[in-house]
Amino acid sequence: MMKVNQKRNRVLRTQWFQDFPFEFVALEACLEAACCCLENEAKTLELEAHPALDKLTSKISTLNLERVRQIKSRLVAIIGRVQKVRDELEHLLDDDEIWLRCI
């Protein structure tokens, strides 16, 4: 049953690619890649954050504080990149000239 669903999804995806201009397909691929990358980084950071916060709550030390500070800095960087992707997507969606060229 799983192979049938996968094959059907592949066929539907291929039809979707053929029905839309190349620009839409390329944009979808780029967004998917960017979102997957950001999601993986966020998951990795979450896995590191829980033990670091647990250590900090059990023992406040310079080393534990520094680890949590580094994790927070990485989180702020990821949030900034997410915001950049969001801003660029909003810019594309708001630009009527881009959409008129794609029709």
TrEMBL record:
InterPro entries: MRS2-like. One of its GO terms (molecular function) is magnesium ion transmembrane transporter activity. It comes from the Eukaryota. Belongs to the CorA metal ion transporter (MIT) (TC 1.A.35.5) family. This is Uncharacterized protein.
